[in-house]
Design goal:
Elements: H1 6-20, H2 34-46, E1 47-48, E2 70-72, E3 79-83, E4 93-95, E5 105-107, H3 110-116, E6 122-124, E7 129-132, H4 138-143, E8 162-164, E9 187-189, H5 201-205, E10 213-215, E11 238-240, H6 252-255, E12 263-265, E13 272-273, E14 287-289, E15 294-297, E16 311-313, E17 318-321, E18 335-337, E19 342-343, E20 346-347, E21 360-363, E22 370-371, E23 385-388, E24 407-410, H7 419-425, E25 430-432, E26 439-441, E27 446-447, E28 451-453, E29 458-460, E30 465-466, E31 472-474, E32 481-482, H8 485-489, H9 491-494, E33 502-504, E34 509-512, E35 526-528, E36 533-536, E37 550-552, E38 557-560, E39 574-576, E40 581-585, E41 596-598, E42 603-605, E43 620-622, E44 629-630, H10 640-643, E45 653-659, E46 662-667, E47 670-674, E48 677-681, E49 690-692, E50 697-701, E51 714-716, E52 721-723, E53 738-740, E54 747-749, E55 762-764, E56 769-773, E57 793-795, E58 804-805, E59 808-809, H11 819-848, H12 851-879
Parallel strand pairs: 3-6, 5-7, 6-8, 8-9, 9-10, 10-11, 11-12, 12-14, 13-15, 14-16, 15-17, 16-18, 17-19, 18-21, 20-22, 21-23, 23-24, 24-25, 25-28, 26-29, 27-30, 28-31, 31-33, 32-34, 33-35, 34-36, 35-37, 36-38, 37-39, 38-40, 39-41, 40-42, 41-43, 43-49, 44-50, 49-51, 50-52, 51-53, 53-55, 54-56, ...
Antiparallel strand pairs: 1-5, 2-3, 4-45, 45-46, 47-48, 58-59
Helix pairs in contact: 11-12
């Protein structure tokens, strides 16, 4: 007797229904399969769903085809697709890292799922936060399930064709052997998954006869199998192995692929060597990306034979020589990126005569290429994006023929920007002219682009006008002057409210007050007005910037108190007003999510508010060089970001969405005093944790709990009136790199635990009342002696003063009572003679020259006096 399978029965029922449809007698409704329903519910049980993504998966419903992410076959009702990617859009905000708190997490029991959902052919969990993929052998799992009776060959039973686990960045997979059992697989995306332990990934991939798309970028792969002559890819069309750690030449197996590969991405590796001519075997190539490798040699002339090539990206290598004219034979080319190499020579219009489809041109080099084009030349293309360099003084005329240009970037160029240029770029959506030597006057310029970066040029005049389209404006490090009032208060241009989210006009010669027009700019997230000549008070209207995350007003002439209206800026994370004349108390309203507070070099007074201890995410507290008094709060150990050493997980990076899903990333930066010098922290700011309370009037002891801040990298309490001992608990601060307790009134012995700070690279304990022997046999002897001077009771290396033990001096040679005297007297007489000569010449200068010279002379004398005093003090310290 012939027995229909469930699928055949369903097809028969559907045909019968179609025949009976016209008579209205068809009431047949195919129900959902209970086995599939059980498989889906088992999947739900095995994952962690913090935001209820799977809340529609109701076990009391008969059918699952309406559940979120589930796709069913229209005829049989069986589950064929499961698509649950997590969306983490990059918004216009101050981001640390993508927020995946709402995404699915836990473990993916893929082998079980494929057995339970036997008709599943599409599976997408992209961009979630899964942590593990426990892969027992599928054969073993089959025998543990009751559904095994439905399979003839369980190991090869899966019908899965599409598998996407990409961008689960916390996912680590040790081997890929399990993939060889999914013989039907056509599409595999493992981007961003840690595969560093998998050394046989290539062999696993070649076991998949139907594999067409393989995406394995940013997987920490190292073994490229460069000497392997053949790789058994029979259907591969797309191969992405970018952002890995391959350090060899291009592999031999690549050139022997006969499957018609048309997308090849090896960008951002460490590939080396020349481009071999056998690369021409891949005649079907449409997309070739080799950017940011170590490939060298010339670009061969045969490169022009890729007749289907549309995207060629070879920027960021060490290619040299001239660009071959045959590159212009790539008539299908849409994008050409050959920048950041070592090309030389002249580029003329004949290089582009056949590139009529070109939309994107990225072309600059070091040393600069020379563009020698006929002034009347009209290119055959209309570009949408251009990244290029020009050797001025004028821009080439062909640039002005590009009517559809949306993104223009010019680097390492010098030219005079005239009104014709500014009128032309007003049509460009993205204008990037930073780090050039562009000369021009912006006084009467109207800028209309969404993104404008004019940073680090030689632009003069007043600030330009901005249309309401401008979202990002950076004109830092130029020579602009005048008031900021026209830029921020032009209601005609702003239409009452601007769309500006990023404003950086630091490092200019701007003057006047901060204006009171901030109510028109509520969209601002980042403001940097530092290093100008601005004066006046911080206006209370800045408190209307409810989206403001970072505010830099440093190195100006601002005075007065910090307005309490700033407490309305609930998103504020970075506040930098160093080197002004501000006064009043330290604010006690700082948001709990704050990260960096820099108030140094002002006139702030009062005590340190205990509310600072409630800022759990604080990594920078810099209140140095003020007139703050009182004691150090005992609650600083409540700042969890300094206790658990997790500051580096919270990068201080802005992400600004401004045009067609494009994003501008900006690292915040601060100048910090650490290890005895001023250093600029930009992209690595989030790795620095610092407390600097130096040069104030603090008194009392250092709270012992402060030394539980094991995540702290730099601590500076110098030039205060602190007393007490260094507690033994200081040895807990294992990440400390810089410690400065100098010029206080601290006492006692240096604890042995200080020697346990293996990362300590700077130590200054000078001018206190420390006593005893400097702990020996440690790195503490490796610091300069100046870090210990001014402590009369200290002895031992690196100081010259010998420690006494059991009533006898501990020395390695016989004692000579005249040693110190004989060593000191010659220096004393030399100093006496030089002082006499200097004094005589000084008197002569005072008699024969003017007042200004006299003042300089006495200033010099004071320096000589101070040096002589320090020399005597050191000598007394070593001999006492």
């Amino acid at each position: 007797m012939n027995v229909f399978s469930s699928r055949e029965a369903a097809i028969f029922a559907w045909l019968l229904c179609m025949l009976m449809l016209s008579s209205g007698t068809c009431n047949f409704n195919i129900g959902c399969d209970q086995k599939d329903k059980l498989g889906l519910l088992n999947f739900k049980k095995r994952v962690i769903d913090p935001s209820g993504v799977l809340s529609s998966w109701n076990p009391h419903q008969d059918c699952y085809c309406e559940w979120r992410g589930v796709k069913c076959d229209n005829i049989t009702g069986r589950v064929t697709g499961l698509s649950l990617p997590c969306s983490t859009p990059i918004a216009t905000t101050y981001v640390d890292k993508p927020d995946k708190s709402h995404c699915l997490t836990g473990s993916i029991y893929l082998s079980l799922l494929l057995v339970e959902l036997e008709f599943l052919n599409y599976f997408n969990l992209q961009n979630n936060d899964f942590l593990a993929v426990p892969f027992d052998s599928m054969h073993q799992n089959c025998h543990n399930l009751s559904v095994v009776s439905h399979f003839h060959h369980c190991d090869n039973s899966s019908s899965l064709r599409h598998l996407n686990l990409a961008f689960n960045h916390n996912l680590v997979i040790n081997n890929l052997r399990w993939l060889s059992r999914i013989l039907s697989l056509e599409y595999l995306a493992l981007n961003g998954i840690d595969l560093h332990k998998e050394t046989n990934w290539l062999q696993s991939m070649t076991m998949l006869p139907s594999l067409s798309v393989l995406l394995m970028s940013n997987c920490q792969l190292k073994d490229f199998s460069p000497s392997l002559p053949h790789a058994n890819f029979t259907a591969l069309n797309v191969l992405d192995l970018s952002n890995n750690e391959f350090g060899s030449e291009l592999p031999k197996w690549l050139f022997n692929l006969s499957c018609g590969i048309y997308v090849l991405d090896f960008g951002f590796n460490s590939l080396r060597g020349h481009l071999p001519e056998v690369l021409l075997n891949l005649q079907q190539l449409e997309y070739l990306n080799l950017e940011e490798n170590n490939l060298d040699g010339p670009i061969p002339s045969w490169f022009g034979k890729f007749q289907y090539l549309e995207y060629l990206i070879i920027k960021g290598n060490m290619f040299s020589g001239s660009i071959p004219p045959n590159l212009g034979n790539l008539s299908s080319l849409i994008l050409l990126s050959i920048s950041s190499n070592q090309f030389t020579g002249v580029v003329s219009e004949r290089y582009f005569s056949k590139l009529s489809k070109l939309k994107v041109l990225i072309m600059f080099s070091s040393p600069p290429l020379v563009f020698d084009c006929d002034p009347q030349w009209v290119p055959p293309f209309q570009l949408e994006r251009l990244v290029i360099e020009f050797a001025g003084p004028n821009l080439p005329e062909w640039l002005y023929t590009q009517r559809y240009l949306k993104r223009l970037s010019i680097f390492d160029s010098s030219f005079v920007a005239k009104s014709k240029f500014w009128n032309f770029v007003s049509r460009v959506t993205n204008l990037d002219l930073e780090y050039n030597m562009i000369v021009g006057n912006l006084s009467n310029v109207l800028l209309n682009s969404s993104f404008v970066s004019l940073s680090s040029n030689d632009l003069k005049g007043f600030l330009p006008r901005l249309s309401s389209n401008v979202a990002i404006f950076d004109a830092s490090n130029n020579s602009l002057s005048g008031s900021i009032f026209p830029l921020l208060c032009d209601h005609k241009m702003l239409n009452g409210k601007g769309s500006l989210i990023y404003l950086d006009i630091s490092g200019n010669h701007l003057s006047g007050e901060l204006t009171n027009c901030w109510k028109n700019l509520e969209s601002l997230i980042y403001v940097n007005l530092g290093r100008n000549n601005l004066t006046g008070k911080i206006p209370s209207s800045m408190g209307l910037l409810s989206n403001l995350a970072s505010l830099h007003l440093h190195e100006n002439n601002l005075y007065g108190r910090i307005p309490t209206s700033l407490q309305n800026c609930h998103s504020l994370l970075v506040f930098n007003v160093r080197q002004n004349n501000l006064s009043g108390n330290i604010p006690n309203w700082i948001p709990h999510g704050f990260k960096a507070l820099q108030l140094r070099s002002n006139n702030f007074s009062g005590t340190i508010p205990t509310q600072i201890c409630q800022i759990s995410s604080l990594i920078i507290l810099d209140i140095a060089d003020n007139i703050i008094t009182g004691q150090i709060p005992t609650c600083l150990h409540n700042i969890s970001s300094l206790v658990f050493n997790n500051a580096s997980e919270s990068s201080l990076t802005f992400s600004f969405a401004y045009f067609c899903s494009l994003n501008y990333f900006k690292n915040d930066d601060l100048e910090l005093v650490t290890k005895g010098q001023v250093s600029d922290y930009g992209k690595n700011l989030h790795f620095m944790t610092l407390i600097d309370m130096s040069r104030n009037n603090l008194f009392g002891t250092v709270p012992p709990h402060m030394f539980s801040l094991i995540g702290l990298h730099s601590l500076n309490l110098s030039h205060n009136k602190l007393t007490g001992k260094i507690p033994y608990e200081i040895g807990n601060m294992r990440n400390l790199e810089s410690l400065d307790l100098s010029s206080n009134q601290m006492q006692g012995e240096i604890p042995q635990s200080l020697a346990d700070l293996s990362f300590l690279g700077f130590l200054n304990l000078s001018f206190n009342n420390f006593t005893g022997k400097i702990p020996s046999g440690t790195q503490l002897q490796g610091f300069d002696a100046t870090g210990y001077i001014g402590n009369l009771g200290l002895c031992g290396p690196p100081l010259a003063k010998i420690c006494w033990q059991d009533g006898e001096p501990k020395r390695s040679k016989p004692i000579d009572e005249n040693d110190d005297k004989s060593e000191f007297l010659p220096w004393f007489y030399i100093g006496l003679e030089s002082g006499y000569v200097t004094g005589f010449l000084g008197v002569s200068c005072a008699i024969f020259f003017n007042t200004k010279w006299r003042h300089a002379y006495f200033k010099f004398l004071y320096k000589i006096r101070d040096r002589f005093y320090v020399m005597i003090l050191i000598k007394m310290n070593s001999s006492g």
